[in-house]
Design brief:
Helix content: 40-55%
Bound molecules: adenosine-5'-triphosphate, magnesium ion, zinc ion
Shape: elongated
Strand content: 5-15%
Number of helices: 26
Low-confidence stretches: none
Oligomer: single chain
Radius of gyration: 33 Å
Distance between the termini: 58 Å
Length: 634
């Protein structure tokens, strides 16, 4: 319990923004000492992302920790977004364009924007991300706008502080009337961005294009006060409360941008291009904000095909957000979403999410063009696994041979919906991979959106995944049996090592009982080595390597632990499974187990529960499933 109190205290401390209020006279020294305070929107967001840490992956690509907790497997798209922000932060023309995300449904577009918004809010609460604003400005504008033009060059040369933008009509009026042209007297305060409080972060959702009013973007005349000020061009008679006004210095999200009426798009264009908002009767109002929009692919294509929209197209940076194509990252997505779903007592059997993920990723992959590369192999390769006959270097070529990979297929949301639907069936306490494959199949058979050829393709993929799962299920059962085989494994290992030693020393083995001399058993050694694909030409190297390890352990006075050698471990286990296959088969398949078999079965279930995160229910299901598999083999 103390733990949560400590965490809340820490949180409070971190987010207790030191309140600051003063005049522009007080503020100026702050900026001069800390020029990042003068930063513009894109630069602030870029710094915010970097502040979480960056790491280089083995190909030298930057990976940003900021995204890592919520977004999985789409590093390329994320890198493009960051690249845009970086260029914009450095003042390049890129910043004058709208960032447009497009991709299939549920590919994480909204999630990405939400992350940026929440990240930016939190960042403005830290010292590094502090933002100061003119206190009585409806657009919380940059106090440096008070600096008259002739002095700006000086500030740039002496302090490296670049200022762009003019006071908004309201601030200009206040300066004249309230502060008597004395910029020193203008009040400044530290602000915190908050979408909820409509500060620094805006969102625009298109509704009916005909009736939606542009005041949602740029504010409107305040009819109640216009009489009091006598003129529509008095800023006091205007409400600067459009999404673009409030998002000044931060960011604005444009949801389903291409659904919006053209009038809105052109306002956006001026904003990004000229950094101006055309509002009411006023001359243009300076605004500094990061515009991020998203759309689905169908609308995006229509837009691209439309000649009339060319001007707009030129002013956008398009970032494709395809689905994730890594099976292991897909599992992370499901884990994240299921955690939110609060499953209570329900158990999700091992490999359940992995199996769903394989299916989802396979549905998104294009048929490989390289000879010998199957769809399943491609999936493994993308996921960083070893695949016979291909190397990681090949991924580049494989990807170059695709057209729109990741833009079609099954979405994470579809999978999660199917998993949920199988979880809420009455009397369900646990779901396993077979349940999920069935639920997926039911899903695309009843789901109207899939064409017949899609359904046929998915059927085949389900069968592929099922074969993958069969192998996994079998291995789990064998491994569980293995615990009771452990001492047999050691005997087998000793035996193998004896033969290897004799072989390497070119000696004969002496039978400890009969004292007869024998040649090393080449057949036994090869049988083990072939389990992990050691070729005939590589056997000497393999044996030498193993033996060096054994000798090293002996010198330290240890016994060689074969489990530290992955390949040898796998080889020994596989060999043993092969030798014991009939025992396993007999034990799991028998209808009336004898007491000895029963004990063994209980042991196996027990091991599955203790070591592999099965519950009793799915462990028993697994045994049943594997027994049916084994029964089908001859
Ligand atoms: N690569 C990913 N990593 C983590 N979560 C993801 C990923 N892709 C999708 N999701 C999750 O799937 C769900 C749907 O994603 P989101 O709503 O962001 O999609 P979208 O691209 O905005 O879709 P739409 O076009 O339907 O609005 C979210 O909960 C999101 O977190
Ligand atoms: Mg969305
Ligand atoms: Zn202002
Ligand atoms: Zn279970």
């Amino acid at each position: 319990m103390n733990d949560i109190f400590r965490k809340i205290d820490e949180h409070n401390k971190k987010h207790q923004v030191s309140h600051w209020e003063g005049t522009f006279r007080d503020y100026l020294p702050l900026v001069l000492e800390q020029p990042p305070l003068a930063q513009l929107a894109h630069a602030r967001i870029y710094d915010m992302i970097r502040s979480y840490g960056v790491e280089l992956d083995d190909q030298g690509h930057e990976r940003f920790h900021f995204f890592a907790r919520e977004l999985f497997g789409i590093d390329e798209a994320l890198a493009k977004v960051v690249e845009y922000l970086k260029a914009a932060a450095m003042g390049s023309e890129v910043g004058k364009r709208i960032l447009m995300l497009y991709g299939p449904p549920s590919s994480g577009k909204s999630q990405l924007v939400i992350l940026l918004k929440r990240g930016l809010e939190a960042y403005t609460q830290t010292e590094a991300g502090a933002v100061y604003a003119i206190a009585d400005c409806p657009q919380h504008e940059n106090p440096l706008h008070l600096i008259p033009h002739p002095l700006r060059q000086d500030l740039l040369e002496t302090y490296g502080i670049h200022i762009e933008g003019e006071l908004c009509p309201m601030c200009a009026l206040h300066l004249r009337q309230t502060y008597d042209h004395d910029i020193y007297r203008v009040p400044v305060e530290r602000i915190v961005f908050s979408e909820k409080d409509r500060t620094g972060i805006g969102t625009f959702v298109p509704s009916d294009p005909k009736s939606q009013d542009i005041s949602e973007l740029v504010g409107s005349l305040d009819l109640a006060t216009v009489g009091a000020y006598g003129s529509e061009s008095d800023p006091r008679a205007y409400r600067f409360d459009g999404e673009l006004n409030i998002a000044n210095r931060g960011m604005i999200e444009f949801i389903e941008m291409l659904k919006a009426d053209e009038r809105f798009l052109y306002i956006l264009l001026t904003l990004t291009q000229e950094k101006n908002i055309k509002t009411g009767r006023f001359s243009l109002i300076y605004a500094d904000e990061f515009v991020i929009a998203h759309t689905n692919e169908a609308e995006f294509k229509e837009f691209l095909a439309d000649k009339k929209s060319e001007a707009l197209q030129d002013r956008m940076i398009m970032v494709q957000m395809p689905y994730n194509l890594k099976a292991s990252a897909e599992v992370q997505i499901y884990e994240k979403l299921l955690k939110r779903a609060n499953l209570g007592q329900l158990h999700v059997a091992p490999h359940t999410l992995a199996v769903a993920a394989m299916f989802a990723v396979l549905s998104r992959l294009e048929e490989p063009k390289l000879a010998g590369l199957t769809l399943v192999k491609k999936m493994r390769l993308y996921d960083g696994q070893e695949v016979e006959g291909f190397r990681h270097k090949d991924i580049k070529l494989i990807k170059a041979q695709t057209e729109r990979e990741g833009m079609d297929g099954i979405s994470p949301r579809f999978v999660i919906n199917r998993i949920s639907s199988s979880l809420i069936r009455p009397n369900t306490r646990c779901i396993n991979p077979i349940d999920v494959l069935r639920a997926l199949k039911d899903g695309f058979e009843t789901h109207g959106a899939f064409k017949r050829e899609d359904r046929e393709k998915f059927d085949h993929l389900i069968a592929d995944v099922r074969r993958e799962y069969d192998e996994i299920a079998r291995t789990d059962v064998q491994k569980a049996f293995f615990v009771s085989f452990e001492h047999e494994a050691l005997t087998l290992l000793d035996n193998y090592l004896d033969h290897v030693e004799a072989y390497l020393d070119d000696k004969k083995l002496v039978d400890p009982v009969t004292e007869e001399e024998r040649e090393p058993d080449e057949k036994l050694m090869r049988s083990i080595e072939e389990k992990v694909k050691v070729p005939e030409s590589g056997k000497d190297a393999f044996r030498n390597e193993i033996f060096r390890k054994v000798a090293m352990a002996q010198r330290r006075g240890d016994r060689f632990d074969y489990t530290t050698h992955d390949k040898l471990k796998e080889a020994i286990e596989k060999q043993l499974f092969e030798e014991r296959r009939d025992t396993i088969k007999l034990t799991v398949s028998t209808r009336n187990p004898d007491p000895d078999q029963l004990r063994k079965l209980n042991d196996v279930v027990d091991t599955l529960v203790r070591k592999e995160a099965y519950c009793a229910e799915c462990a028993n299901e697994l045994l049943k499933y594997v027994s049916s598999l084994l029964a089908r083999e001859k």
